[in-house]
Design goal:
The complex is a heterodimer of chains A (314) and B (372).
Chain A (H helix, E strand, L loop, with lengths): L2 H6 L3 H42 L1 E3 L5 E5 L2 H7 E3 L6 E3 L1 H33 L3 H12 L6 H12 L4 H8 L13 H26 L2 H9 L4 H29 L3 H7 L6 H9 L5 H26 L8
Antiparallel strand pairs in A: 1-2, 3-4
Helix pairs in contact in A: 2-13, 3-13, 4-8, 4-10, 6-11, 8-10, 8-11, 9-10, 10-13, 12-13
Chain B lengths: L13 H5 E12 L5 E12 L3 E5 L6 H9 L6 E6 L2 E2 L10 E4 L11 H11 L4 H14 L15 H13 L5 E5 L7 H18 L2 E6 L2 H7 L2 E6 L2 E6 L1 H6 L4 H6 L4 E8 L2 E4 L4 E3 L9 E7 L4 E5 L7 E10 L3 E8 L4 E7 L14 E6 L5 E2 L3
Parallel strand pairs in B: 3-8, 3-9, 6-7, 7-8
Antiparallel strand pairs in B: 1-2, 1-4, 4-5, 9-10, 11-12, 11-14, 12-13, 14-20, 15-19, 16-17, 16-19, 17-18
Helix pairs in contact in B: 3-4, 3-5, 4-5
Classes of the chains: A mainly alpha (314), B alpha+beta (372).
Chain lengths: 314, 372
């Protein structure tokens, strides 16, 4: 190649730099829709909530644009109407506690019922699995409110369960199941069970059963093979299922409203109350953000404890 | 042998002591209605400390037999015994038998060392003993430097070694190997073949090896069982299997073969194409029309007219393959015949050309009468 030919071409480095610039510009352009959606529909509303939580409640709902920390203070504390001293907001605390404990119990119950169910489905012949999965997902197609009212039919004083128990003379008078924490737990377990079954099913379905054979072959009992080989391998599905159940339980609204009545409120109902009858939007916003924080802490903690590595090398 | 498992009462006779695994009339049928018979009345005795190979095409039942021995498949009928003790009803975790799985089946959530330690832990060995055995096993398979690795970070050959170490660590009475080399490339496969032989010598454990690769079987085994359609057709040393196959299937499956029609009379067989040979016919073959086998390398061809003891042939095709030349011939009867000649240096002139008439000599003792 001659000198003149060399001179007429741009330096190869410059070409590459140009291409890299174009690349990064294209990347930005291509990800713009995604970024827009994230900012408009995810971060945007959150941002509004954060701002509202630091404003004063309006007289007929909405907010007044006066800075106030009352919304946050009232999450845990309440001001005495006579002498303005701060006290623990017992009502809120008991609602938080009910939400947390019922969500945990529901998660455990869905694990107890969901893991064997998922196992059963995943070990069927491929053709049959679809049928069982279909049955698990059928409730999703029915309105949640309608399903919850159906549960009410089961457990109310003149409901199916009480009638059967009475007819069998196991009980003399109807059991009070409606408007109790039991009713809420029962309803939430029913509603969220598919959310446990599906991710666990996906994990079991991927499980290489030759590994289970290998464990048997190496003198493991059935239980040990489950604990040492199967459980660690389906753990991602169990974690995913637990998260999918626990989080919506914390914020559940319809089920506690219908089955728990007006007394047994949960977090979601408390928030709704502030935006509705309570007319305290800043408190509602602060409660929502508190719920989010609790969920995040719970998530981090759960992932920590469950992602511990297999014990150290021998 | 360092057997960690207590075995049955001491065997009574020398012959019995020699047998590690004995299958008697094992039949395995999959599926209740119109089931598939994977094993059809299989009986075989596998001696202690031998490298025993189950050889056959896919679907012949060799893996099923291995799984019956491991305990994963209960036999539909028949008895399986280990050192004279009936183990047919024992689950896999109660049998002093370990398996190297075809795809290794290493635990992906454990390190190399913990994989190897698994069986030892299950047997309730002490911590220090486990540690020592794991180190010993890692040394045995030359993997000491990868002790703490995740198994997913290993190459195929390394995974293979870990699988071997894991199965050998509990010092089983019998090691089962289910086509363990099939996933490796050719060079690594050759290396592992030698490695496996060495491990078998060093540990003194009975190896039962499943493969569909006849060359692998011939080079590695003390004895081979050739299987087809759920049956064992022949059991013998590689030499016996190759030189004296009992059936056409065995001859065909192992090595190159020429099948010729012949007439048997006592210990003499006369080829339809001409020539008489002294043979030892297998049991159950009556005088009359028979099939005989001649291996291509046991015949030689020379240009020119056939003399005494030679057969007249026409050369159809000549295939050169470096170390040897294979001549595809047509006999006077119309039967085809392959003759494989080692290539001598230089002298190319001795071989006939394609289309020529030539003279074929079948070496004495090269003719084997087949059962079918």
């Amino acid at each position: 190649m001659t000198d003149s030919a060399l001179a007429s071409e741009p330096a190869p480095g410059a070409l590459e730099a140009h291409a890299a610039r174009q690349d990064s510009r294209n990347r930005w352009l291509l990800s713009l829709p995604a970024l827009l959606i994230i900012f408009l529909f995810a971060s945007g509303p959150l941002f509004v909530m954060v701002i509202y939580s630091f404003l004063s409640p309006g007289d007929y709902g909405n907010v007044k644009w006066d800075f106030s920390t009352d919304g946050w203070v009232n999450v845990l504390l309440q001001r005495d109407i006579f002498d303005d001293t701060l006290m623990w907001a017992d009502a809120h605390l008991s609602i938080f506690w009910r939400s947390l404990s019922l969500s945990l119990i529901t998660t455990v119950l869905t694990l107890i019922f969901g893991v064997p169910t998922a196992w059963f489905i995943a070990t069927q012949r491929p053709g049959k699995r679809e049928f069982w999965l279909f049955l698990v997902t059928v409730p999703f197609w029915t309105n949640l409110l309608v399903r919850t009212i159906a549960i009410q039919e089961l457990i109310r004083a003149e409901g199916v369960i009480n009638n059967v128990l009475l007819a069998l003379h196991i009980i003399d008078e109807p059991l009070q199941m409606m408007f109790t924490d039991f009713a809420i737990g029962f309803g939430m377990t029913y509603v969220y069970l598919p959310l446990m079954v599906l991710p666990v099913y996906a994990a079991v379905e991927k499980l290489d059963f030759r590994l289970v054979e290998a464990a048997y072959d190496l003198y493991a009992s059935r239980w040990t093979a489950f604990r040492r080989v199967i459980l660690p391998l389906i753990k991602p599905g169990i974690i995913a299922g637990s998260i999918l159940v626990f989080i919506p339980c914390l914020g559940a609204y319809v089920t506690p409203r219908v089955l728990g009545g007006g007394k047994n409120l949960m977090f979601g109902n408390l928030i709704e109350l502030q935006f509705g009858a309570g007319r305290n939007w800043p408190l509602g916003a602060a409660l929502s953000l508190t719920l989010m924080a609790i969920v995040m802490v719970a998530l981090i903690y759960y992932v920590r404890i469950t992602s511990r590595e297999e014990k150290k090398d021998v | 042998m360092n057997a960690l498992h207590s075995t049955a009462a001491p065997p009574s006779s020398a012959a019995e002591r020699e047998t590690a695994i004995e299958a008697r009339g094992i039949t395995k049928i999959f599926g209740a209605a119109n089931g598939f018979m994977a094993l059809d009345n299989v009986s075989v005795a596998i001696r202690r400390n031998e490298f025993f190979t189950l050889l056959g095409p896919s679907g012949c039942g060799k893996t099923t037999l291995l799984r019956v021995i491991a305990g994963f498949e209960p036999p539909t009928m028949g008895v399986l015994s280990l050192n004279g003790r009936d183990i047919s009803q024992l689950p896999p975790n109660k049998r002093p038998v370990n398996t190297v799985f075809q795809n290794y089946a290493l635990f992906p959530h454990m390190s190399v060392a913990n994989n190897i330690a698994f069986g030892l832990e299950m047997l309730g060995k002490s911590k220090s003993e486990i540690k020592d055995t794991v180190t010993e096993m890692l040394k045995l398979v030359q993997m000491e430097h990868l002790r703490s690795r995740r198994t997913s970070e290993l190459s195929g050959g390394q995974q293979q070694r870990v699988a071997l170490a894991r199965a050998l660590a509990p010092k089983p009475e019998v090691l089962l190997l289910d086509e363990p080399l099939s996933a490796l490339d050719l060079k690594l496969r050759k290396e592992m073949q030698i490695e496996l032989k060495r491990l078998q010598h060093e540990t003194g454990i009975t190896f039962i090896f499943v493969t569909h690769d006849q060359e692998e079987a011939l080079t590695m085994s003390d004895r081979i069982a050739v299987m087809s359609a759920g049956k064992i057709l022949q059991v013998g040393s590689p030499r016996e299997i190759y030189a004296k196959p009992a059936e056409r299937f065995v001859a065909n499956f192992i090595g190159e073969s020429n099948f010729l029609n012949a007439t048997l009379a006592g210990d003499s067989v006369t080829l339809d194409a001409g020539g008489s040979f002294t043979v030892t016919p297998p049991e159950g073959v009556a005088d009359g029309e028979v099939s005989v086998l001649v291996r291509p390398e046991h015949a030689s061809v020379r240009a020119g007219e056939p003399g005494a003891g030679e057969l007249a042939v026409t050369v159809e095709t000549i295939v050169y393959s470096g170390d040897a030349t294979t001549l595809h011939l047509k006999l006077a009867t119309g039967e085809t015949f392959k003759a494989k000649q080692p290539n001598a240096p230089a002298e190319a002139g001795v071989l006939p050309a394609e289309g020529d008439s030539a003279a074929l000599t079948i070496a004495p003792g090269a003719v084997t009468v087949l059962k079918d």
